[in-house]
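User: Last request for today: this protein with adenosine-5'-triphosphate, please.
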Amino acid sequence: MRQAVEAQVLSPHCELGEHGLRQILTDVIEEVRQSVGHDIDGAEVLHSLLNAPWLQSLLKVYECLQRFLRDSPAPALDYASGLSLQLLIDIRSLSGCSEDAKELYRLLRQPHLQALLSAHDSVAQKDYEPVLPPMPDELPDDEEATRIVCLVKNKQPLGATIKRNEITGEIFIARVIHGGLADRSGLLHAGDRIMEVNGFPVDGMEPEQVIQVQARSQGTIMFKVVPITERPVHNQTMLYVRAMADYSPQQDPAIPCADAGMSFRKGDVLEIVDQTDALWWQAKKLPSNTACAGLIPSTNLLKRKQREFWWSQPYQPHACIQTLSTVEEEEDLMAIDEKCVEADEEAFESEELREEEDDFSSNIEGVYLAGFRRSMRLCRRRSHSTTQPSCHTRCPSSCYSALNSPYEEVVRHQRHPEDAHRLVALLGPSGVGVNELRRRLIEMNPNIFQGATPHTTRAPRGYEESGREYFFTSREVFDNMVYNNRFVEYGEYKGSLYGTSIESVRDVLDSGKICVIDIEPNAVQAVRTHELRAYIVYVKPPALERLRETRQDSFITTNYYVNRPFKDEDFQEMEEAARKMESHYWQFFDHVIVNDELQDSCVQLLTAVRKAQDEPQWVPASWIRPTAES
Ligand SMILES: Nc1ncnc2c1ncn2[C@@H]1O[C@H](COP(=O)(O)OP(=O)(O)OP(=O)(O)O)[C@@H](O)[C@H]1O
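Assistant: Here's the final one, the structure of the complex with adenosine-5'-triphosphate:
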């Protein structure tokens, strides 16, 4: 039996000729096989793909369908369920029945068999089409100008908005939502004039009243429309963007129809499916499991809204134009904690020395872990403090403000194996574990991961080598690099300058390794460039309770204390800093790790970094098609 079915399947008379599609495939496979022999790029992958058993099976199915389509077999009977019921009754009425009859009885009673027979009958009787109401008998003389559109209502909204011409009182379709019921019907278009809904004339009605009439209808809804004479031709190009702002249609009094609106959050990737209207675009949020798009403000409209909002806010000097802190201000920040030993300059230096010795012990297989020195980290941390803006990032890119484009065009991109790796940049509130995770990642495989060696103007110590712990440079060279925007970020600590240069990062990437650095949030824009293509991982603190539990045996290094146990204030500060960071920078995070259990976080980081390098990602379009400014 099985053999017979197979034989039947193997010799279909499909439309593609006697030999069928599979014959074509066999010929193609042969040709590709020869290309494999000639070592042509990609031929091997194509060959294995064409040879895949699932493809062969799919073609068999396709050929069978083609055959049935051509033969269009008529059903032997269109009441299989009824026949099955009759059989059940007959078998039950038998006084003594055979084992075969009993088995047939059991089979026919199976719910899935009954469902199958019922589906068969529906198809055989062709009763799957909706029953439409009869056409109106008396059609007016200008009949040819009108169209009757009958839609079957389901749980979905109609997917069209209406507007009223205030002078004539006529009701028009304002827009048809992409993928909605009206759009899929292909029968209603923006600009069509609605004359009747379910037989009610709508001229002169308020749009809300029209909606009520429409909402009252059950099952089907009938529109009588005068179609727009010249439908505009739209050449829609596919556009994907990352939202740089939050939007909620429910809180936007200007939206033409809040129910048709789509909310989004910073960082969401949106597929813009319709830009016909200069003010209101139609979009879907990705990944999307709905066919229907929603209304969102266009770039220009959202920019205008942001500008209005920005001007309505009280004046706040931009971080980039804040004055540098004075010595007195620094002293004000000194707090004496009774329970901890305050680290004065000298004590601090000796701690720093110890750390440097520790750093040497982190020398794995001759690879030195650069970029973990305490001075560098403290300098960076101070840069983030709002009261002490002593560290800087490249302006103007760091001056990202609400007035920049609210949508960033993105494309789905897969790094070519021969391209340099993407830079991995970690950030998070101070003490959350950014450096711990970074160090563990590099230690896991120093042949793959490496930090960038920072620059400093401080004098080298006896054991230090330029290019290993730091690149030791003169202030003049450092200033020149700053002037030429060659730093991802830089700052001052104890009178010396420290910074991570783009060249240091590039050196690691050019060596074929994955460069892993940690940055302060205001350096985000400096690493999101065509050159570095940073993959930004945000390390988020877990809930307060979990912080207390997991950090019981951990130590924090603050500006004034070296390795003291965490206190509740540290956790609260961490949470507060995290909230601020998320509210300003969430849209730039490619991946978020909640650093709860350290081991889990390490695994998550490793997985994310692998995906960033080897799987398709949404990246700014300017990285792939560089513009003059990028
Ligand atoms: N998941 C965790 N569980 C327990 N302890 C952790 C965890 N993550 C980090 N730690 C510990 O917390 C302390 C602070 O971590 P780390 O030095 O990495 O902070 P950081 O985010 O780099 O902060 P900073 O930028 O201020 O140096 C370290 O002692 C580290 O071992």
